[in-house]
Amino acid sequence: MLAFSRLSLSRQFLVASFPILLIGMLAIGWWVGITIERGVVNRLGSVTSHYVESFISPHLQDLARADTLEESHRAALGSLLSDTPLGKRIVAFKVWDRRGRVLYSTDASIIGRSFPIGEGLAAALAGNVHSEVSDLSEVENVSESLKWSHLIETYSPIHADKLGTVIAAAEFYQTPDDLFREIRAAQLRSWMVVAAAMLVMYLLLFGLVRRGSRTIDAQRQQLNDKVAELSKLVAQNAQLHDSVRRAAVRATELNERYLRRLSADLHDGPGQDLALALMRFETIAASSANAPAGGDRRRPLEDFRTIHSALQSALTDLRSISLGLQLPEIDWLPSGEIAGRAVRDFERKTGVTVTLSAASAPGNISLPVKITLYRLIQESLANGFRHGRGTDQRVEVSHENGRINVVVSDNGVGFEPDKLNTDGHVGLEGMRERVEILGGSFQLESSPGHGTVIRASLPMWLEGIDRE
What we know:
By secondary structure, the protein is α+β, with helices and mostly antiparallel strands. It contains eleven helices and ten strands.
């Protein structure tokens, strides 16, 4: 059953319909044979009835007045059964009275004997002609069954002249050879006609089913392809969702690290300078309260200079930190100019020359992508300068198939990424998170003594976000 279900619809039709059509064809042939047999037997019974009425009935009219046949009538019956064409086709003949006694028979041994009245004899005694193919199993057919297996048995009523009453019944047998030949010929013809008609219908139906099967197979294949594609998209969506979830968790951690680092910068830089200035103020206040009139003024002057220097340093540090946090106006800049702005800002702050190769992507790109592109280049160059003592720093920006590709490299001291302690390299983790949260890819390649290469790929546009 499983093997059958795996077949195509057209092959299933072939396998399932052929036995049905074959059985139907055989059943039609059998039904035709039965119909022909009944028709031929009834026709023979009708012909025989007319023969009996015309030739045999005149010799049996004495039975209306007596219970036996005269010898002359018996001789006349024997002559009719041997000299006439129909008589030559009759292989056995009997005359029955109304009580089931044989008055005349070609088998002399049963003349005068009585037998049970069967269906055919009862019909004849009731005035009807009865014909059938007999298997000669009745008691009165012993002599016939020794010569034949089947005979056409016909019972015909004998009517009294002018009265119309049934006075006896004639029974005669004919060989069924002609009947069987006619039946076989008719069955063969019917089978051929039915086979031809069914073959034409079969081929037409098969053509329709095959065309429908091909359509179904094609649609099934398309559906399977769509399901496979949908499953792939669902899997990708699940991966992206998981990546976004992990990125959000890591982004929270990174924000806390940035805040701690910013706090440390403020504490160690401007905070220390301001604390020093505050202490000097307190010293000046104490000195002024205790100093005699007209005392030495040089010590307060030095303190004021120290305070001025500390405040100036704190102001410089605060401005530097603020500028590092502030993003320049890049909303309307193409990708190539954004890369150039990030490189020029780095060169201005550090005095280091960076080799830039940047091609602007066609059309506009989403603002989050622009921001990520700027921060990626800015943080990559700063990390290379600060931690890797990078030399020969290079930035390459290109575009392909709706994506922006960024490569930032240097010839610094390098490191082993597998052994990297991320607590001290918040910038690297931040860059990775920025890129991956937009659906991009981030790769870090580095080894001790061979510099560092950062490769990133960003989509130009983000679904659900206005394209700037």
